[in-house]
Amino acid sequence: MRIVATTPVQDCFDGSTVFTYWFDTVWTPDLVQVLRCLGELEYFSDFPRPFFRLRCGSGLQVKGVVGEDNCQVILPRAEREVIRESFERCFAP
Amino acid sequence: MIYLNNAATSYPKAPGVVDAVRSALTDAPGPPGRTAAEDRSTLDECRDLIAEQLAVRDPHRIVLTPGSTYSINLALWGLGLRAAHRVVTTVTEHNSVLRPLYHLRERHGTSIAIVGLGADGALDMDRFKTALESGATLVAANHASNVTGRVNDVACLFSMAHEAGAVTLLDASQSLGHVPVHPEELGADLVAFTGHKGLLGPPGTGGLYVDPNLDLEPMLVGGTGVRSDLMLHPADMPTRLEAGTPNLPGFAGLAAALRWTAGPERQGPAVASAMAERLRDGLRTLRGVRLVDDDSRAQRVPVVSFVVDGWSVDEAGYALACSFGVQCRSGLHCAPLIHQALGTWPHGTVRLSPSAFTTTEEIARAVEAVARLAGCA
Ligand SMILES: Cc1ncc(COP(=O)(O)O)c(C=O)c1O
Q: For residue B342, how far is its CA from the centre of ligand 1 (angstroms)?
């Protein structure tokens, strides 16, 4: 799974930076597990489209659904670049 | 997909809107002169229908604009507010009111007083009265909150405002199409409204009602299609406040929406409001779900805000939309101050907003989806 694009989400959020990350393939239940190394991953397999969310002590948050080629990523204000790199590293070739 | 984000923009549009917009774009424009007359008649029909909705006698007092934000700016900048002036407003306002006011304060030193909520969740009338005692040039108030749906008692606010000698501006973005908005009854000198929410019309349409005793300075001047011989922009209303080529397809669509809402389908607002009540009733029974501002005595437009234990509002909104197909909105909804008053700052709420086209089945499925999030299904 490789990142192919990122787009900032334009909305009235609370000031955090929110991005949609786009991938070259869709999320599968197995691929979701890649995120486990970053923090607390929860997987709601019984939702109509299985939903996952990741919450990390650093403030990084990720959410998405299986079957989509994207997910939403919230990057906190503090240490934004370091945290962004740690997230993107999960998808490095 | 279950669309419950009508407070952001309505979907679907009223029957006839899409055809009217399409015809306005596909029908060949007539020869010069005739085209102008036809364009005028679309705009005039729209103006007449809005005047009817607002129970306003003179349609020329209705300025057609691209929406509420434009109308509010037109009103606030057009009043020529300066350092000597004071505006009293409320915590329920949208950024479309707050930001122009903050800009006026930055640029011209205009002072602003913001009135909060009382313990019952309604605007604090005592504090409002106190705020007026220090003088007010303008009172700007939201008719209905886009976060809680609560309808403010603007008739009372505006009556006090007039006694204090202030001009009154009503933001009817969330109320028009849902509850009566009659400027004369409410004591509103200026009413900003939008076409794409409760009126079920296209985005990029809206207007500003201007009381006959009030003159606004134009924010834009230029071409009007009439009186081309004049050096200065024509002074007569509504041309005075309408410069540039209007959004004809949009206003043709809005006219169609207004014709529909004025027709036998007039029970539309009652349906939307019944659906919102059903939604509130359903969500109220769920453990782990907290309705925000749930006073059953309050009059409301169809907007329901809530938070779910264990879920941030953006996670909940995302899961509802992407996992359950329930289109909603989460966050501050461009109205930051009310969240400070309600205790939902800084993250906001999840908001569901039905329309006249929402069904009981859709409401049941939305409640079921929230129940699944809350873990009580
Ligand atoms: C209370 C309120 N005021 C103003 C606006 C802005 O309206 P428009 O989209 O027509 O500019 C909105 C829209 O969300 C609103 O809810």
A: 20
